[in-house]
Design brief:
The complex is a heterodimer of chains A (about 250) and B (about 300). Chain A is mainly α. Chain A is built from ten helices and no strands. Chain B has about 300 residues and is α/β, with parallel strands linked by helices. In chain B, about 35% of the residues lie in helices and about 30% in strands. In chain B, helix 8 crosses helix 10. The two termini of chain B are about 30 Å apart. Classes of the chains: A mainly alpha (about 250), B alpha/beta (about 300).
């Protein structure tokens, strides 16, 4: 195995060894959201024509889980390694910054996608889902998990304490996901909030992903794909610059 | 000549703090080299720069001729580092830890060597135990094993025996000596000066980020350290005119520092001359601690 494949293997093995906490727990959380929201609001709310609220909700919950877990993986792994000091084992070998980036982001994508698949597998027992355009589902799941994986890596590089990661999670990731249309179609919002939502990159990931299921969305899936892809490129570029300079890791 | 480690005018600044102020030194291949200095002298900073964990503000460092920045892949393959802190990854067992570390260096089919390292370091009984469950001494051995997993010709140990019990320390040194006999270059930092004196061929001393001594252990001992003569006499005063420095006096007990054996002859002669009787006499050979203190005092 090369340095890259070993680092990827190690990162995947790390979350897999504690999969009860890293996979099962977020699946349960998503299921609780579905039960509470779908049953409380199910009869009264209709977002798209011919789509029940529970059906509408599932893709949003799946994507939310993908994004949150992709972020959590890289960020928590890196901050743990930094604080416990075992990061040194990854810094001593001849692993390039590109390999480091690739391994962390791919492992985060892996965790995000495994949790997303888990949420989908559990919720389809309760909700009938169609799959209008699967290619969009895969495209947004892959790009979205990569984007949040890279963001998690940036947060992990920047943070020096666990509570900084927690703050990032609670004050950035959580509001952006909750206000991105996981639980509602932005058409149901007043116009000014619709405009604000369009500034949130998470909205495009959720909306594009949902398009793959229903063939209906708030924004054009092509536009969403461009927004997500450009965000991913910019963030990856920033992250690679941080890694190349050794920012906070080799100082 | 290719040095195992070559540092040229290495500087490191952390804001206003100058951790290293232009250090140059060369460690020859196959040498057992000691890097000594008080806390904060810059030893760990220098090691971090050699290992590529920290970037120097100025200067160059090469490992077996490979620049640690420009040719970092080769430099890191040639170097094994045992870090000072007792760090470990709590997710894995000893064997997993070693296999992963080996994989980081791109090594396939390295299990035979991993088993050998496990065996040499007496880790066999704990090979499949989680790292969390290991005692401090065992964790230290795993750190050594991790540094050796890619068979590096140059090995740097940053205070490997801090907080390690005597038995393990002896075992560890035996193992490291064997590595040195097999041709590995060893660079060591330690606070135990008697260890450095016993093991190292050459010694560098750092203070305040500067190199203040660099010589063979034997030369350092000869140049800087005298003998210490401990006496118990039949009276509580020393005669005048002794060519020795009084270190301490307690009743009829005295400790004198002598420059060399010729000075001993002079002291004994003077005592005889003045009719002083010696009840007890003890002569301590020069030691590195004495050298260390004198060098640190001087700079």
């Amino acid at each position: 195995m090369g340095g890259f494949t070993t680092l990827l293997y190690k990162e995947v093995l790390r979350f897999w060894k504690v999969s009860f906490q890293t996979v099962a727990a977020p699946v349960l959380t998503a299921l609780l959201y579905l039960v509470v929201f779908a049953y409380a609001l199910g009869d009264r709310v209709r977002m798209f024509e011919g789509v029940s609220y529970a059906q509408f909700l599932v893709p949003g919950l799946v994507m939310m889980s993908v994004l949150q877990n992709a972020f959590a993986n890289g960020s928590s792994s890196l901050i743990q390694s930094k604080i416990s000091g075992n990061l040194v084992f990854m810094l001593l070998p001849p692993i390039s910054y590109l390999e480091f980036f690739g391994a962390y982001v791919l492992a985060s994508m892996c965790r995000g996608l495994v949790v997303g698949a888990g949420v989908l597998a559990v919720t389809v027992w309760f909700v009938d889902l169609q799959l209008a355009a699967p290619a969009w589902v895969f495209a947004f799941a892959l790009l979205g998990s990569a984007l949040l994986g890279a963001l998690g890596l940036v947060a992990g590089i920047w943070a020096e304490k666990f509570d900084q990661i927690a703050a990032f999670q609670n004050f950035v990731i959580l509001p952006l996901t909750f206000l991105s249309g996981v639980f509602y179609s932005i058409r149901s919002l007043p116009e000014v909030w619709q405009t604000v939502t369009h500034l949130n990159p998470f909205f495009y990931m959720i909306d594009g992903f949902r398009y793959g299921f229903f063939g209906v969305s708030d924004a054009s899936p092509f536009a969403s794909l461009v927004v997500v892809a450009v965000s991913l490129l910019l963030l990856s570029g920033a992250c690679l610059l941080m890694l190349r300079s050794g920012y906070k890791l080799r100082q | 000549m290719t040095f195992a480690i070559e540092a040229l005018n290495v500087e490191k600044r952390y804001g206003a703090l100058q951790a290293l102020a232009g250090v140059s030194l060369g460690v020859a291949e196959g040498e057992f080299f000691g890097l000594l200095g008080p806390n904060g002298a810059g030893k760990t900073t220098l090691i971090s720069i050699i290992a590529g964990l920290t970037r120097a503000s100025a200067g160059t460092v090469r490992v077996m001729g490979a620049d640690v920045i420009k040719d970092y892949r080769r430099a890191r393959r040639l170097l094994g580092v045992v870090p000072q802190e007792l760090v470990f990854d709590p997710f894995f067992t000893v064997r997993e830890t070693l296999r992963i570390q080996s994989g980081y260096f791109g090594l396939r089919n390295n299990n035979a060597w991993i088993d050998e390292v496990i065996d040499h370091l007496d880790l066999g009984a704990k090979a499949d135990a989680n790292m969390r469950t290991l005692s401090g001494g065992m964790k230290r051995r795993v750190l050594v094993a991790q540094a050796l997993v890619h068979r590096p010709p140059v090995i740097v140990l940053d205070e490997p025996t801090a907080g390690v019990d005597v038995e393990l320390r002896q075992g560890l040194w035996q193992f490291i000596r064997r590595l040195n006999r097999d041709g590995h270059t060893i660079v060591l930092t330690t606070h135990y000066l008697e260890e450095a004196e016993e093991l190292c061929d050459r010694i560098a001393m750092l203070k305040g980020g500067k190199l203040v001594a660099l010589d063979s252990t034997r030369n350092l001992l000869e140049t800087f350290s005298g003998l210490v003569l401990r006496l118990r006499l039949d009276r509580e005063a020393l005669p005048e005119g002794l060519e020795a420095e009084l270190l301490c006096a307690e009743g009829a007990r005295f400790a004198l520092r002598l420059r060399d054996y010729a000075a001993l002859e002079q002291v004994l002669h003077r005592l005889r001359e003045t009719g002083v009787k010696i009840w007890e006499l003890e002569l301590e050979p020069p030691d590195l601690e004495e050298v260390f203190l004198r060098v640190m005092e001087k700079h």
